[in-house]
């Protein structure tokens, strides 16, 4: 991900809420994510090693910056129990987003920009 790509939401799934919360708290403490939303359990249906499988997982949304996104991804991969975890970096459009919230994310990751700049 480009270092100039603004705000990013990194979507992942975890085997349970406890694991998602533990790793999420570590990511926030390390300033790799400003905030993590651990969501309600979901049912996942997927093909793995030639068979269709079903499992209950816990999704989590990590709010970060484009500059920190690769470091956050590597951090999460190093702590993830799955062999090939779902992990998607979703760029956030500044238009329509709350510029103060985007500035807060940037400041929490250590990349301060003026409040209300929206970029």
List keywords for this structure.
119 residues; alpha+beta; Alpha-Beta Plaits; five-stranded antiparallel beta sheet
If you had to describe this structure to a student in words, what would you say it looks like?
With 119 residues, this protein is an alpha+beta fold. It has a single domain (7-109), classed as 2-Layer Sandwich (Alpha-Beta Plaits), CATH 3.30.70. Helices cover 32% and strands 33% of the residues. The protein is built from three helices and five strands; from the N terminus they run E-H-E-E-E-H-E-H. Strands 1, 2, 3, 4 and 5 form a five-stranded antiparallel beta sheet that branches. The radius of gyration is 15 Å and the shape is globular. The two termini are 16 Å apart. 26% of the residues are buried.
SS-based class: alpha+beta
Radius of gyration: 15 Å
Question: Do you know the CATH architecture?
Answer: 2-Layer Sandwich
The CATH topology is Alpha-Beta Plaits
How many structural domains does the protein architecture include? 1
- Relative strand content: 25-35%
Helix content: 25-40%
Strand element count: 5
How widely separated are the two ends? 16 Å
Q: Average the pLDDT over all residues and give the rounded result.
A: 91
**Overall 3D form:** globular
Return residue spans where pLDDT drops below 50 for at least 5 consecutive residues.
Answer: 112-119
Count of DSSP-assigned helices: 3
Give the helices and strands as they follow along the chain. EHEEEHEH
Name of the CATH class: Alpha Beta
What does the main sheet amount to?
Answer: 5 strands, antiparallel
